[in-house]
Amino acid sequence: MDPRYRPVQTKSAGDRVINRLKCALPYVPCFICVVGFVQTVLFLINSPELFQLLLYSPDLRLQPWRYVSYMLLHLDTIHLLINLGIQTVLAVPLEAEQGFLRTALVYILGGLAGSLGTAVLDPELSMVGSSAGIYALLLAQLPNILYNYELLRYQWYRVVCVVCLCVGDVTYDMFRQAGPVISWAAHISGAIAGLLVGLTVFTSYSDYSPLSLSLLRYASVVLFTILLLFSILYIHTHKNKAILH
């Protein structure tokens, strides 16, 4: 065969992701852009009817869509802009390195865990905002680093950034003098969900995957399932209280 006409070898999906891990290939973060667009549109529409339809409220906890739809709502411009900025910064590398679907699962299940955790631990609190999903994205950085440590650049900088963001946000919330009530239950539940879901669904692109990581993945599946079922059963057994509240 004439060497001038050698067939072009296309890169596999795994090769493309590895290039993204090494910051060598750009990626458009479709999922978080769509979410941010919807959140912005709903805020600009400023419809009281839509707001009441989508927010999480303890009086309406038996309406299942509210456990996720509340993430699309924000109280004011500052609330919206802060959440849009942080979730974009956190989601862009995850979506580039782990893909659209896995990042969406982390964000959505983190939000679901946040509302379920609030229903169990702080049952009188109504809730809007995407903070639970943001905390899920934040803690999901750790499984991504763990699974692809050898391929990622600036691994320890990422870990330090995760720790600094957590400490900074907690410190700010502790010393904040005014503003709406913050649901610690939602933040903590979202963070735990992000860690467990990331450990469950994220992919390792390394050629070597030790048995310990596989065991950790299975343990995460079991623990997340137990916590999810416990929360649902708890809410179901307290539904009469929710109706009569």
Written overview of the protein:
- The protein has 245 residues and is an all-alpha fold.
- 69% of the residues lie in helices and 0% in strands.
- The chain has a single domain (26-240), classed as Rhomboid-like fold (Up-down Bundle), CATH 1.20.1540.
Query: Quick one: biggest sheet?
Result: none
For CATH, the homologous superfamily is named as: Rhomboid-like
Secondary-structure element series:
HHHHHHHHHHH
**Percent range for helical residues?**
55-70%
**In angstroms, what separates the terminal alpha carbons?**
80 Å
> Can you count the beta strands?
0
CATH architecture: Up-down Bundle
Gross geometry: globular
Uncertain segments are: 1-14, 240-245
Q: Proportion of β residues? A: under 5%
Specify the oligomeric state.
Answer: single chain
Radius of gyration: 20 Å
Structural class by helix and strand composition:
mainly alpha
Reading off the top of the CATH hierarchy, the class is best stated as Mainly Alpha
> Might you state the CATH topology name?
Rhomboid-like fold
Average of pLDDT: 83
Quick overview:
The chain is mainly α and 245 residues long.
Task: Note the topology.
Layout: H1 13-21, H2 30-45, H3 48-54, H4 66-69, H5 77-98, H6 100-121, H7 131-147, H8 155-175, H9 184-201, H10 211-237, H11 239-244
Keywords:
globular; 245 residues; mainly alpha; 0% strand; Rhomboid-like fold; 11 helices
